[in-house]
Structures are given as C-alpha cells and as structure tokens.
Amino acid sequence: MMRSRYFFNSSIIRQNLRQHGWIGILYALGLLLVLPLQMFMGNNTEMDRIELDSLFKVGFAGQALLLITCPIVAGLFLTRYLQAKSPSDLWHSLPLRREHLLTANLASGLLLLLLPVWLTAGVSAALGSWSGNRYLFEGADIWNWALVASILTLFLFCFTQFVGIFIGQTILQGVVTCILLVLPVVISQLISLHLSIFLYGYPNQSSVENFVSNLSPFMNLIDLEAASFSRLELGTYLGLSFLFIGLSYLLYRVRDSEQAGQAVAFRYMNPFFKAGVMLCAGLLCGAYFSMEMNRQPGWVVGGYVVGALFGYAAAQMVIRKSWNILSRKSSLEWLLYTALLGLLLYIPASGLTGYEKRVPSAEEISGVYAGSNYQLYTPEDSPEKGMGRTPYTGEQPYSADPDYIEAVRKLHLIVAAVQPENSLKSAYNYTQSTRLTLAYKLDNGREMIREYLVPLTGFEPELKAVMETESYKREEYALDWLDKDIEKIRLSTNEKAVVLSSSAEIAEFKEILTQEILSMSYEDQISNRVNEGGIEVTLASEEATTSSHVRVSYSSSHYYSWKTSYQELARWLEQKGYAAKVRVSPEDILSAELMKDDYSAQLSDGNQNNVDKHMELARSQKRAVVTEDKGMIADILARQRYYDYNRSDYLVLLKYKAGYENYVTLAEEDLTPGLRALIPQ
To answer: Is 0.85 topped by the overall pTM?
Structure first.
C-alpha cells in the first residue's frame, strides 16, 4: 500500500514502459544506426582516418531528426491520459496525488529517452578503437555528445509535457509544441519586418532579432554540426528544463480534469490563446502583403487586419470545436482584440519612443561604422566554416577616429531630422540613393544601429564628408583584404581575362589599387560609369574539412571594381601590356543600336524598367539606328553608363561577337557631335 504512494510509483512506471517502450526502442535503434554503425560504413582502408572534434558530424541529419522527434513523441504519449475524458477519469481516480502521477510519468519518459542516449555513447566508446572505424575521436568527444544529446532530449521532453498541461487535445499539443519551438525566430523576423517598414531607420536585421533567433532550439540544432553548444547555452536549456518541470507541478495541481478534450485546459488562458493566434496570423499575412505589394504600408496594415480576422476565426473554431462561430459577441470581441493588438504594434513603431530622432552624443561614442556591409561582419569562423571566409570574417567594423565620428553624427542628425522618403524606385536605383548602415559602439558597451536610404541629391556635403574619409573607404572597400597573403589577382571583363601571379607584380598592383581607392572622390564613388573590368583577389590556399569529412584545400576571394577613375592603375596595366587583354575594344563588338529614350511616359509602370520594351517601341517608330562604325563604338565605350531608367537620355544596345548583348546608356553631355548627328531625334 505504501509503495503506491511513492513519488516513483513502480507500477505506473512499468505500465508506461510496457505501453510506450517502443519509443525508447526506436530511439535506441535509430541512434545506433546513425552513429556507431556510420563509423564503419563506406570504409576505405587506403584512406586516412578522419579526425573529429564533434560526434554530431557523423550522420548529423539522422541525429537531428531523432533528437527532435523522439522526445516530443514521448511527451505526447505520456500526457495522452490528460487529453481524453475516459483515461483522465481513470488515472485521477487512483489513490495517488497528482504530483505522484506526474513524477512517475516524468521518470518513465526519462528512462525511455536517456537510456538510448547513454547506450549509444557507450557503444561508440567501445567501438572507437576498432580497426574498421573511419573516425578518430577522444573520450571527451563522446562525453560532450552524450551531455548535449541528454540535455536537448530532457529539454524537449519537459517542454512537451509542460505544453500538455495547458492544452487539452493531443494533436493540438503537438502542433503548439512545434510552433512554440520555432516561434522565437519566426516572430522576431516578422516583428523586425514590421518595424523596418513603419519605424524610420530601423535596420532590416537587428541584433535583437539575432539574439532572439538563438533562443530557438530548432535553429540551434541545425547549427550543431558546425558549432557545438557553449556552456552557457547548455546551462540555459538545463535550467529551462527544470523550470518547465516546476511549472508543470504547479499547474497540474490546479488543472481541472473536466477540461480533458478542450483546446485550452485553463479557461482564463483562452483570451491569450486567441490574441496569440491573431497576432501571429496578422503578422504572417502582413508579411505576405509586404512581399507582394512592395512594402506599401497601406497594404501591410490591410494584411494585418485580414490575418487577424482569419486568426480569430481559427482560434474560435479550435476552442469551440465548431464551425458555428458567428455572433454579435464574436464581432465585438474581434474588434476589441484587433484594436488592442493594433495598439501593441503601433506604439513601438510610433514616434513616442524617440527612436527615430535619437542620435548619440560624441562623448558617448567609442567607435563608429558607416557603410553598406555591416551585416556581413561575422565572428571568427571555425576551420570547418572557413570555406565561407570573407573580408569581414573576424574583423571589427568600428573606427575611433574623432573626425570620422563627428562626420557620421552630422549625417545622422540631418537624415533623422529630414527623414527622406524611402521610395521603392529609389531603393532599386543606386544612382539616386545609397543605402547606409550607421552603427555606433557606445562607451557602455552597447551598440546603436540605424539603416537609411539616403538620396544623393540634397545631402551632398554630409555624404561627401563621410565617404571621402579613409576610415569609410577602408571598411567599405575591404582594403584590409589586400594586406593578406595574396596568391593571385585576376582581372576580367566578360570572356577576357588576365591573371597576375608574380609576387612582385602582385605587390605593385595592390599598392596602386589601395592608393586609387583611398584617392577616390565622392563623385567617383557615386558615378554610374561602366567599370573597365572586375578584379578578383584570391588569398593563399588553406585547408578545411567538409561536411562529408573530406580534407580539402580552398581559396577565398574578394572582388573589386576597376573603375574608370583609376588612372594610375590603368597606366600601370598599359605599361605591362595587360590593359589591352582585359578591356572591351570596338573589335569585340559587332554593332551598336542607339535611340533617344523618352518612352517612359508611354509605357505602363510594369514596363518602364524593361529596356527591351523601350527599344521595341523606338524601332516601331523608326527612331532607333544601328552603327558598325568602330570609331563611334569606341566613343560609346569610353562614355557608357549603367542603365538607369530614371535618367536614361540615350539607350544603347551593344551586340558582341561572342554572341551576347548588353544595354548601356549615354547622358546628354556624353554625346560627341558624330553620335548626336547619328541618333534620330
């Protein structure tokens, strides 16, 4: 009699193991197949054994699938008695307190789930020294794998149990569990999108979004193959597991057994359930309208309202378990919830917070960044991820130059005060505006980040003061990349290319290129002149292990532009005889077709940026002319600009001998007398 009142009731545990033992068996077999067995599959005795620093790199996809599904499935089945009336009445009629039932079920689940993990760890340790094993690893790697897998398993199982206390239907419990596990990353992205549309200066990707995204176990598990969990992350998941266990005990004591089969087991949680579903549905629908309607605020707000309507209807159907949800009370309730959620979304995006006007004082700033590459800066990668190395890997973007800090502050002050409109046309046209991220490193250790689309007209003095500084150019044009160990430099235009591999030529070239970039004026940087060519700078080869555990050599490259303003570089290349091998010459072109481009008003909005439509219309009106004169083609090549439908005085279609075509433009001031006489007006 006393044994039945123990917290760890042996009868209940044995019953659970008999009824749900298949989960533990499948979990054990699956882990044994994807880890120990994988060590001996595909063995080639002629290949060296692969050294591992994490066992998650062996059959990772299978491991991830098992680590996610089995704990959740176990949690669903072990709380099944709470979700149906007959089992609920039966179990709660036993002479046991609720905490005894919950403890027995928790113990059963942990036995089903943790024993397979430690069995797999033991088998892997025993087979690690066998001659047929393809991998080399240490005992610490096995211990780390077992610890991480155990904590993840414990967390997912306890979280599923916790959700089961709130939810009264097994299927809904599974759905809600999976949604909540990915909710941090999804909701952070949706809220970030909302703020970037309605809050001036809010960056498209914020540090808050990155932090919240890291709270999603699913996202962390996806990255587990490349980078193991830190002690802080493991401690957080372990602490959350015990928190969910404690909350489960508290809530289970007050859970009404009569609510079995209901969507939400606590009636007072129904409003929060409705509001949560409405908020998520509204943000999703708003994000869809944002993508389809080019972020137009009116359509986005309309999407929020439509999504809230569908979300409310879905929540009501789930709670009532009926399609019949239409009533006057429901309409008024929907209006109330929509108004409250609208207020919740409006306040952070309004001017009430002072976010849009806030500019730190010079005394608060220890470093500053201005440019378009801020999101590319990443921490130093591990060797396995080194194949994605960029000039921004492991670098810090901030400059402590006081003059640069003041120049960025002045630009920020005027942009925040004027708040130029982020028009869609300007966003896709770099000749009219430039996208800048302004980031401050403050003395208190925090960061302040703003992102703006700054028109090039009206802000020239402030932009010039920032963009002509050495600090700006070094970060924006990745000059530190040129200081690394360079293996080769490749210059190319279309199918023409030349490679510099001599260390002496590489040293000369990178010195000249650095000086050319540092000497660029503001006008050179915003010019829409077609570049002379592209420059690919490749570093010396490094070694890394791929996801297939193959040791390979790789090279990292970064691309620069050979701008028409680089006169010293052009002279050096001409002296070396490389310029003629790279530049596009009139001999490479079959013909040039020219027209005066004044057809935007005659075309629909969808075709205004369609250069083929412009040319077709000109041909139909016999206002296009074709020339094969090499002198005129040379004049075009010397003055050509990238196509800009907002400022395209003359459109030119260049047809190359290699078989491809390219559109460029000429401004009114670019025309020589010969070209002006040739083009029909």
So the answer is: no
